[in-house]
Design brief:
With 261 residues, the chain is α/β, with parallel strands linked by helices. The protein is built from seven helices and seven strands. It has one domain: Rossmann fold (3-Layer(aba) Sandwich). The chain is globular.
């Protein structure tokens, strides 16, 4: 018997699904009964994840996806729709971050990150949202970051990208009002994922120390990706008539020692 619940069939797309928040979100949505389409450049990792979903009785589809390539996004959308049917949930999660001082970073590198973090999300919107509007039903979730409201230094274009992503999402919320399509933002705080694992140790240590310097790391706790995945699943599971516009998810501080009196 399937371990996965079977509510109304609502196929879901997750980008950046090969690891971290994306992988955890795919498993969470599948456990909630959603057929899941996994998109990333590393399809081998997505296939491993899809096997877990299928072994537990769920549906999963895997196709290569490069959000910086419009043709790749178009082909992905056609392929997953053919596999699973009309897509009702899209989780825009893929992103990249590189360390660096903004005035020293190569402009082409800066632009590539913005292309993935903002324009890539828009390519996804163009591929799926018109169909949702036509069907008068759908959920779009943008995975943002707390840098959108509290910029962190030495992360190149990342803060600018997330500020821009949230600006687009807020505008879409107004534009989509009354269409039956909900655009939501999930804004994580510090979370353990593969993002940043390609940094040199010295670079990572420098950036983290600067966060402390500017009061952006009040405690050392990071969240597991499952915390964000559960928030995303909650957002798209809201009943009709309810819209979770913005959900902030932050790591809880460690228990402080009770001071003696």
């Amino acid at each position: 018997m399937s371990r996965y619940a079977q509510p109304d069939r609502r196929p879901a797309v997750v980008t950046g699904a090969s690891s971290g928040i994306g992988a955890a979100t795919a498993l969470s949505l599948a456990a909630a009964g959603h057929p899941v389409a996994l998109g990333a450049r590393r399809t081998d990792k997505c296939e491993e994840l899809a096997a877990q979903v299928r072994e537990a009785g769920g549906e999963a589809s895997v196709h290569p996806l490069d959000l910086t390539d419009t043709d790749s996004v178009t082909a992905f959308a056609a392929a997953v729709t053919a596999d699973l049917g009309d897509i009702e949930v899209v989780v825009s999660n893929a992103g990249a971050v590189a360390p660096g001082t903004i005035h020293e970073v190569d402009s082409e590198c800066f632009a590539r990150e913005l292309d993935l973090n903002i324009v890539g999300a828009h390519r996804l919107v163009r591929a799926f949202v018109p169909g949702m509007v036509e069907r008068r039903r759908g959920d779009l979730v943008f995975v943002s970051s707390d840098v959108a409201v509290r910029a962190r230094p030495f992360m190149s274009s990342y803060a600018a990208g997330k500020w821009g992503l949230e600006g687009m999402a807020h505008a879409m919320q107004m534009e989509l009002e009354g269409t039956g399509v909900r655009a939501s933002i999930v804004r994580p705080g510090p979370t353990w994922s593969e993002m940043g694992t390609d940094w040199e140790d010295e670079e990572a240590a420098f950036v983290l120390n600067q966060w402390v310097r500017f009061g952006l790391a009040r405690h050392p706790h990071f969240m597991k990706p499952t915390a964000i995945a559960d928030a995303i699943t909650t957002v798209v599971s809201a009943p009709r008539g309810v819209h979770w516009n913005l959900v902030e998810v932050s790591p809880e501080a460690p228990l402080s020692k009770q001071e003696e009196r």
